[in-house]
Specification:
Strand content: 5-15%
Shape: globular
Number of strands: 8
Largest sheet: 3 strands, mixed
Distance between the termini: 47 Å
Number of helices: 15
Order of helices and strands: HHHEHHEEEEEHEEHHHHHHHHH
């Protein structure tokens, strides 16, 4: 069983990563070492889902989820034209709440997120740690340097085809349609990934996720869940639109000629106004509290930046899909063409949608 999933060049890559840290700074050595150890933990912990399902002692709830994941994999390949291969054919019990904790940062008076650049992923707007204390320690250093900082736990991530991604215990308790959306989202990163453009990558994957969930629920004839899922997506969209609109108000504030103290006062006032705007939106939802924890955070520039990257271009990608009458393969081909364009050409094409 292990040879099927561990005989690929995974370990050669990890060995290369571990050896190459000798050429980096001390901080880089620590960072890449923990990343290699974290990924190695997942690789060594993988269990074949098909084999697990043969175990009569497997808990019923986990059995049902694993069977659902196999069905989602098949649907992703046959109905969404996603390249599944051996992705999500294994399960890993991590025995913790999140797989990775991401650190986001931005300057005190800027909504532009800080970027970190990596050999494979290119430049992205977060720095991931497999340990929460390590993430918070790094975040504290940034905060002491005067940056706005936000740290959030992540249930899953894509290795962009370098490894076969596994189903992790950190997400297995999600509802079936949320689990399907997660898998569709992460598989989309293996279709098209543009190093250095987080907004393009995440907005594209979110568009695939939303369309995939809609089709999955239709395919499985879960009409009752369709209403709940559509309501959830609508709330997610309204949440994103609210935060993005206020992010733009923060951007306008930071362009004004004010003293640092005046800027901080107005920034704090805008944060209070954003919370009030959320309470009004929440009232229109009948008191739904799904985003309460998010709004209980500082609402600083780093936190605001986490929403835009996943949603800014979703309408454009959905419009592009619609222009192909829902043909996923044609849609993916067009997105690949976008990825080959210059930044200016891509922006013009997306704006035209």
């Amino acid at each position: 069983m292990q040879s099927r999933f561990l005989s690929r060049p995974s370990f050669r890559f990890l060995l290369l990563a571990l050896l190459s840290v000798a050429l980096l700074s001390c901080e880089s050595v620590r960072y890449y070492s923990q990343a290699a150890r974290g990924q190695l933990e997942i690789l060594l912990g993988r269990e074949d889902i098909a084999a697990l399902l043969q175990d009569e002692a497997l808990p019923v709830e986990l059995r049902n989820k694993l069977e659902t994941v196999l069905a989602i994999r098949q649907f992703a390949e046959s109905e969404l034209a996603l390249e599944v291969a051996d992705n999500y054919a294994t399960y890993v019990d991590l025995e913790r709440e999140h797989v990775v904790w991401n650190v986001f940062a931005a300057e005190e008076f800027s909504t532009r997120a800080m970027e970190w650049c990596y050999p494979i992923a290119g430049c992205v707007t977060y720095r991931g740690y497999f340990s929460e204390p390590a993430a918070r320690s790094y975040a504290q250093g940034l905060q002491e340097d005067g940056f706005d900082v936000y740290t959030g736990g992540v249930g899953a991530y894509s290795t962009l085809g370098w490894f076969d991604d596994s189903l992790l215990s950190t997400v297995v308790n999600r509802s079936d349609h949320q689990l399907a959306g997660l898998i569709f989202h992460e598989l989309a990163h293996q279709v098209v990934y543009l190093p250095g453009d987080t907004t393009f990558n995440e907005s594209f994957a979110t568009a695939v996720e939303r369309e995939g969930v809609r089709r999955w629920l239709t395919h499985t004839r879960q009409s009752g869940l369709m209403t709940d899922a559509e309501q959830g997506l609508q709330r997610q969209q309204q949440f994103a639109e609210l935060v993005i609109a206020w992010r733009d108000r923060f951007t306008d504030l930071y362009q004004q000629e004010l003293t640092a103290e005046e800027m901080r006062q107005r920034k704090s006032a805008l944060q209070d106004e954003l919370r009030q705007a959320y309470r009004e939106l929440q009232a229109s939802w009948g008191g739904y509290a799904g985003y309460d924890n998010w709004f209980a955070q500082p609402l600083n520039n780093a936190q605001l930046s986490t929403v835009g990257s996943y949603n800014d271009l979703v309408p454009e990608f959905l419009a592009l899909l619609d222009s192909h009458s829902g043909d996923m393969e044609a849609f993916f081909a067009s997105v690949r063409e976008l990825a080959e364009m210059t930044v200016a050409e891509r922006a013009e094409r997306l704006a035209s949608l």
